[in-house]
């Protein structure tokens, strides 16, 4: 089955549940705020366009109204209707019109560059104020052309963009009719500079934006960039500007979006246009977006670092724990102590619990291992015993038959001592050859020891054998096979022979204690030292295999240890051997403690 590490899972969780939602929300916020700001900017600039349009219409209307007095002015009517006016009088009258009318109109107005009056009868009256030298002949020719085309004009017309010298001007005209004949007699021409249009358009200006006024031919009458005044607008844009009274649309050129807001003039064919760079409208928002992205990226990096560090710490701890668990699984309980146990969080608790568990497993493993070793040793000893029993069954047969022949010859020769010895020895061999049960009855063991002691009595003429045993208990008490003979041999060896003393007394007595049945083997020999006796009793009580091995090497008392160990293994504690002193500094009593059933009341002391 395909698995994923915890580090990978944490990374995916952080990516899909933190980074991805933040990115989506940020994109939605950016798009929504961009549209909102864009619409706010468009609506705001539309209001400014409308307001500027009204101001420009008012300005043109004011120019138109200022020309009304010229229509009925007596001097102008006299000038255009009097065919007999001499040149001198015409000059004087033109001077008066120039001083009284033109000067009055231009007084206090810096937007009017010049005024001309072109009549059918006389020469033109031109009044211009300019710091540069003007080509008046050119102005007079222009005026003649305008007058010639005046029949097709409205009474007041905004003619369009012209130039007076190097200065662009807006030319307007007012047709003047004779008050007597009502015929078209003269044309009043006024050239206006673009200062007023510029001041009105300044309210629309955004940084790097363009404000322009286009006439119906597509020519730029006014532009915030003076160098572009007089240029013709692109045909596609011109058609869109003239397609409706007002509208908003967006164009894209060189990957840069531009918003066009336009509105046509009410009284002229002009169109007021504001061209707004899209990036300038949302410029602050873009900057804010960039700062937000940088700040967000910084926060994500910091969060990822902290989160990643914590995740690495967590997964590193788990990896360490996993490696230690694998060592324990392979049977290696020597796990290394790490600093994880010192942590004061859940990881520290887990590691402390793990080390406690490993220690407990180690202890249980050692106990099981020790039990297995003991079991193997017991099996080895049982096999050795079985082997010895088999060997004993092989050799005693020959010896038993031989003893029978010897006994027959002894009887024929009337030698009863030899007969008695061979009979006892034969009984011992028969006991050896019987079935190899480990646990036998006290009666069987006593029969065997009787034969042994009869032989010993023939060896030791001064030996007294004292056996005081309850006959009723012999069939109820169980014990380990060949337990008594080693104890009696030990009494002969350590009580008498080792100290070169004559064997004089061997006693066997039994009695019952509340918790066990006791068989005593008594000698009245040299006795046993108190410290050695205590050491033996301590070893018998605290049975330990290594301790027993040490005592066997030290005291070379294999028989005692063999009887005690087999009894303890067969019946458990507190059964086995215990050494007592018969009298102070003389004689030894070896007690063999055996189990018995308390309900065996007939077995009494």
Automatic annotation (TrEMBL):
Pfam family of the protein (one): His_kinase
SUPFAM superfamilies per record: ATPase domain of HSP90 chaperone/DNA topoisomerase II/histidine kinase (SSF55874), HAMP domain-like (SSF158472)
Positions of transmembrane segments: 12-30, 293-318
PROSITE patterns assigned: HAMP
Main location: membrane
Lineage: Bacteria, Bacillati, Bacillota, Bacilli, Bacillales
Location in the cell: Cell membrane
Coiled-coil ranges (or none): 361-393
Membrane topology: Multi-pass membrane protein
Keywords tagged on the record: Cell membrane, Coiled coil, Kinase, Membrane, Phosphoprotein, Transferase, Transmembrane, Transmembrane helix
GO molecular function, a single term: kinase activity
Protein name: Histidine kinase
Domain HAMP: 312-366
